[in-house]
What we know:
By secondary structure, the chain is α/β, with parallel strands linked by helices.
Amino acid sequence: MLTGVFSLAVTAGIFLSLAVLLLVAERYLADYGSCVVSINEGSVEFEQPGGGTLLSALYDHKIFIPSACGGKGSCGYCKVVVLRGGGPLLPTETPYIGRAETKAGVRLACQIKIKEDLELRLREELLNVREFKARVASIRELTHDIKEVNLELLEPEEIKQRPGQYVQILAPGPDGPVFRAYSISSPAHEADRVQLIVRLVPGGIASTYIHGLREGDQVVFTGPFGEFRLSEQSEKPVILVGGGAGMAPISNIIRTIYRRWPRRPCYLFFGCRTTRDVFYRDDFLELSEQHPSFRVVYALSDPLAEEQQWDGETGFIHLSVDKLLPPAADRQAFLCGPPPMIEAVTEVLMKKGFRSEDIFYDKF
Ligand SMILES: Cc1cc2nc3c(=O)[nH]c(=O)nc-3n(C[C@H](O)[C@H](O)[C@H](O)COP(=O)(O)OP(=O)(O)OC[C@H]3O[C@@H](n4cnc5c(N)ncnc54)[C@H](O)[C@@H]3O)c2cc1C
Ligand code: FES
């Protein structure tokens, strides 16, 4: 018995040492030479010394793809189609890549190491994503943990965005700079600025950096990114459901709608824990007086005893959606907030007859 355990331990030890040796060899000895990365049938092509990740090679060549977790392999946003090269799919990629995507060659750019020539296919619009330099024009505290940050664009001076899209802010981290995604809350027609609504995540790298910014500081970001597509059909009702910093894309969509389609039906459902988390409510109630087709519903999930005066809804926001959203045929919904909220609201909307392709969401 003891001999069996001993030989098992020796075998495990040998495998472990080999794995460590391989890692060291890969890190310090492997020389993959110069590799050619070709994108969209050679419409963009560059040479890159092998060894680094595809994500950082693209960044070095000013090709900015979504990478909300900054290359940690935990967001699944940095998908590219690899037609040639790239090696086999890695276990770190499989949670984010479905069977059909695997067949189509979809990979996570942050997980692929460049060891040979690569042929890629990228969505054409990603080749137009730019790097921006901006100056902090003003900062406003919206709640105890959320700030509104207004950025004036310096270079380029204008951004072309669709409501609901996001940018990736470059923030200094303990192990080097990181990117994090933040939705644009200013409307698309205000092209010379970008407004963000950022919740402070305790110990979080980028949110701490953004909350520490002061007027006049310069920031760098890339963008715009994102798949939200607000329908151009002026009569199509829009349902917006959010919580916390999920207000950012929602604010952009509302302000875009009422500039372009003053009579478009739009419902805002916004979930807060207590009145400490409520912001923009008065602004939206005022807007709803100018545009009677705009309905505003705020709900407190955890009202304090002294909040008896609250004249909004109480309970989780998906319950308000269930109770107050009237039935209608053809509508679009945009959901932004924590994953449990998105899941609960999606279930309510599906029950109310929404088609899944009409429900857009960003979980954060
Ligand atoms: C498409 C998209 C749009 C987004 N838009 C916004 C936005 O408009 N405003 C905004 O404030 N955020 C937004 N986020 C979230 C944002 O990108 C960051 O994830 C968030 O600010 C935390 O980053 P950090 O660097 O501060 O924390 P990290 O340094 O990444 O994390 C530090 C620690 O906090 C935990 N953590 C990370 N995120 C959260 C979280 N949200 N809640 C609780 N714990 C967390 C991590 O597990 C880790 O332990 C968006 C995310 C996505 C994917
Ligand atoms: S950048 Fe997040 S998974 Fe690749």
